[in-house]
Specification:
By secondary structure, the chain is mainly alpha-helical. Helix content is 69%, strand content 0%. Helix 4 runs antiparallel to helix 5.
Length: 128
C-alpha cells in the first residue's frame, strides 16, 4: 500500500506517518524500486499499534523504546511487559480521575435539573 492509502485508511496525515517512521515509532517501511514507501501487513500492524499507544497516552519516547525492544528480540519480553504495565497504570489512574469528574458533573446536572423544575437551587452536603 502507498503512504496515501495508509493515510486514508487510518485517518492520519502522510506527514504523521513519515514522522512515525523517522523517529522510530514504527520500523522502517520497505520501498519500491522507485523509492516509494510500500506498506505491508506487518507495517500496518505497527501503524495501528502506534495509533493505539498514542491514544493511550504513551509518550513518543515510550513507543520508540517499545519498537527498539521488539527489534532486539525475545529476550526483551520482560522490559516490554514492564513498559505496557506502566502505561496501563497511567491509564487506570486517568480513568479514575475521569470517573470522579463525571460523577461530580452528574451531581451538578441533577441539581440544576431539579432547579429548573422547582425554581430553587439546592446543593445538599456539597457546595457548588
Amino acid at each position: 500500500m502507498t503512504i496515501k492509502e495508509v493515510s486514508e485508511m487510518y485517518g492520519i496525515s502522510q506527514d504523521t506517518l513519515r514522522y512515525y517512521e523517522r523517529v522510530g515509532m514504527i520500523p522502517t517501511v520497505g520501498r519500491t524500486s522507485g523509492g516509494i514507501r510500500d506498506y505491508q501487513n506487518s507495517d500496518l500492524g505497527w501503524v495501528e499499534l502506534a495509533i493505539c499507544m498514542r491514544s493511550a497516552g504513551l509518550p513518543i519516547e515510550g513507543m520508540i523504546e517499545y519498537v527498539k525492544l521488539c527489534q532486539e528480540g525475545d529476550e526483551t519480553f520482560p522490559a516490554r511487559l514492564k513498559l505496557l504495565q506502566e502505561q496501563l497504570e497511567v491509564l487506570l489512574e486517568q480513568r479514575k480521575k475521569t470517573e470522579e469528574t463525571i460523577n461530580r458533573l452528574q451531581y451538578k446536572i441533577s441539581r440544576y435539573e431539579e432547579a429548573v423544575k422547582t425554581g430553587k437551587l439546592t446543593w445538599g452536603n456539597s457546595e457548588e
